[in-house]
């Protein structure tokens, strides 16, 4: 089913609103401790407990309005529910902090499998936005695969060696900025392998 067009601001709000809400709630509640059912929960766990259903609702709303969810959105939602739920249930923040690692390993692994088969699994997902020839897609996919594995390793390093607050800042701003900078740095690939409507120019 073709994706329906909705207000760009609404779409962005549904996609990024839960992340902004998580960050704001963490800043407000990070030093508080909540008692529930005789157990004490730190602010991070309480915020995670609120983030999981919020992401579920926003993703369902996005699907309802657009009639479409990307594979990345579906995988992210499943991992947030599973690992966020485990963090809350077991009162252990490590599960939620490992979630980005698994996401990037899954995406990097999927792209890597495609490369081993001589294919770019990135092409059908982004070809409408990035007009590249076949060689260009293979180059970009190789670089993105390595980039995803690098982000997975970096997330492990940060959450295992830094404070929870440092990890929250890294997750909210660092990872987002890293993805943006990656694509900004690929200008040479887009110029060399880009195609026009008249045909391949790479």
UniProtKB/TrEMBL annotation:
Membrane topology qualifier: Multi-pass membrane protein
InterPro entries registered for this protein in UniProt: YciB
Any Pfam family: IspA
Subcellular localization(s) per the UniProt record: Cell inner membrane
Keywords of the record: Cell inner membrane, Cell membrane, Membrane, Transmembrane, Transmembrane helix
Transmembrane annotation, as ranges: 12-29, 41-62, 74-90, 102-122, 143-160, 166-184
Lineage top rank: taxon: Bacteria
Similarity comment: Belongs to the YciB family.
Cited function: Plays a role in cell envelope biogenesis, maintenance of cell envelope integrity and membrane homeostasis.
Protein name: Inner membrane-spanning protein YciB
Source organism of the structure: Thalassovita aquimarina
């Amino acid at each position: 089913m073709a994706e329906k067009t909705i207000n760009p601001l609404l779409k962005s709000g549904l996609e990024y609103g839960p992340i902004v809400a998580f960050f704001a709630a963490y800043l407000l509640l990070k030093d508080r401790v909540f008692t529930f059912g005789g157990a004490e929960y730190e602010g991070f766990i309480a915020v995670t407990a609120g983030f999981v259903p919020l992401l579920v609702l926003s993703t369902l709303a996005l699907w309802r309005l657009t009639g479409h969810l990307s594979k990345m959105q579906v995988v992210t939602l499943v991992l947030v529910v599973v690992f966020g739920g485990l963090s809350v249930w077991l009162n252990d923040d490590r599960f939620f902090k490992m979630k980005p690692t698994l996401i990037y390993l899954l995406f990097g692994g999927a792209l890597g499998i495609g490369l081993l088969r001589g294919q770019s699994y990135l092409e059908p997902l982004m070809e409408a936005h990035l007009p590249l020839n076949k060689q260009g897609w293979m180059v970009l996919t190789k670089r993105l695969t390595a980039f995803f594995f690098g982000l997975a390793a970096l997330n492990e390093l940060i959450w295992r060696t830094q404070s929870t607050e440092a990890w929250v800042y890294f997750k909210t701003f660092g990872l987002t900025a890293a993805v943006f900078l990656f694509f900004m740095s690929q200008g040479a690939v887009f110029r060399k392998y880009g195609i026009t409507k008249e045909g391949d120019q790479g």
